[in-house]
Amino acid sequence: MMSSNNKLTAKLMIQGTSSSVGKSVLAAAFCRIFYQEGYHVSPFKAQNMALNSFVTAAGGEMGRAQVVQAQAAGVEPEVRMNPILLKPSGPTGSQVVIMGKSQGNVTALRYHGEYQRMTWPYVTEALHGLLNEYEIVVIEGAGSPAEVNLKSNDIVNMRVAMEAASPVLLVADIDRGGALASVVGTLELVEPEERAMIKGIIFNKFRGEIKLLQPALDFIEKKTGIPVVGVVPYFKIRIPDEDSVALSEADERPTVSLTEQLDIAVIRLPYISNFTDFDALQDEPDVSVRYVTDPANLGKPDLVIIPGSKNTLADLRFLHESGIGNNILTLCTEEIPVIGICGGYQMMGRLVKDPLHTESELEEVAGLGILPMVTEFYPQKHTVQSKGTILTDRGFFKACTGETVVGYEIHMGRSTLDEGHLPLFNLTSNGESNLDGLQAGNSYGSYLHGIFDNDSLRASLLNWLWERRGSKRPVEASLSQAALRESAFNELADLVRQNVDLERIRAIMGIRADS
């Protein structure tokens, strides 16, 4: 039952007929639309399964999708917006993060039972807290509400809709085909009281002439008795993706002339995390970012990046066994720059140790030996937002020495540098200072996520890479990441406004025209 102490808050829940139908992006669009209309808006998703996470100002860890939605709503992200986060760490298990704090690894079988039921009070407390404090809460579901094998322990779809007394918009991906059947099938499989919560249908990712679709829209309304409140066209607006399902292996090989763009190869690790670190590079017109799994496709790029990982030792073993590690070492001898972020930084050292099995069953794996350091894992996770100063004046940092750098850290490993080696940054987190990062030749590593979002540092890196080619960077200037993000949110809001019946959606939410 809905808590009686909630003030009158408007709610809207976005559920889907399956995963990857566009729920996260549409929720972000509605957050921005209502923010533009002057409302105090919060996103909410009870449980997220993703490897892209973020650290709040208070040091809590949460899913990246709700961070993006909070930014679209013009509010500071906080863990109540995503009280339960599952970070897959193996084929059958995940690290469980509750209200921003890691609770360790749990198998899927154990989680989808008593453990999941135990998390429900955290969900309801966070949900009602937001409902009490905001004028509008935009709620996102997960997967499909019709997954009957998981329904008895549901804490993210219809149970949340019922708890919040929130109307639901059901979203289907019409680009996939079978969208009409998926809508009808979903409505058939949910309980009658749940079906009554679904007040509108949105078809997403439409390509083509809307007049040709109209007979299908008429049919679905007649068949279900539920109005179609929008047909959103397929679009390519840069909104950070929730998880690695968005990464295409088809992009492994360079697709443009090297005279036009820099070729940056990011190693697509099996447990890659926080690949949103590289969105800022992808936004640059003179940069091509590709994700590589096959050593034959690595080639000789301008820069290799080893990203973060949810299972550093397993991914390090993948580098050794796949042959990509040897390819990276060969590129190092040819002075091709390599940058490691967080887990990638750890892999570049001599050795990674996990004696307490905090992350995997492996106890230690030899590193790539690129950077002179050793990493050991500890049970307590380090999750902080960090800000500091660039110390080094070598390599691409020469143009930005002494400048400010900001980002966030999420790691359980601690790296010890060999004696006599200087760090890259002096960082401050929660009032405490610490040194971070390491350089050896043209290879660099750091625990700092979001490092490329620093506009000056990113520009220094790209200018340096062009200079290494004996060329001048062809782009005079690029917009800041903050400006690009705001532009993307506004573009997304405009697109959705034009293609959904907002007046009807407001009525569904109980928002009066004069409110």
UniProtKB/TrEMBL annotation:
Residues 12-235 form the CobQ/CobB/MinD/ParA nucleotide binding domain. The active site is at C342, H449. InterPro entries: Class_I_gatase-like (IPR029062), CobQ/CobB/MinD/ParA_Nub-bd_dom (IPR002586), CobQ_GATase1 (IPR033949), CobQ_N (IPR047045), CobQ_synth (IPR004459), GATase_3 (IPR011698), P-loop_NTPase (IPR027417). GO terms for molecular function: ABC-type vitamin B12 transporter activity; catalytic activity. Keywords: Cobalamin biosynthesis, Glutamine amidotransferase. CDD domains: CobQ_N, GATase1_CobQ. One of its GO terms (biological process) is cobalamin biosynthetic process. Catalyzes amidations at positions B, D, E, and G on adenosylcobyrinic A,C-diamide. NH(2) groups are provided by glutamine, and one molecule of ATP is hydrogenolyzed for each amidation. Belongs to the CobB/CobQ family. CobQ subfamily. This is Cobyric acid synthase. It comes from Desulfosporosinus lacus DSM 15449.
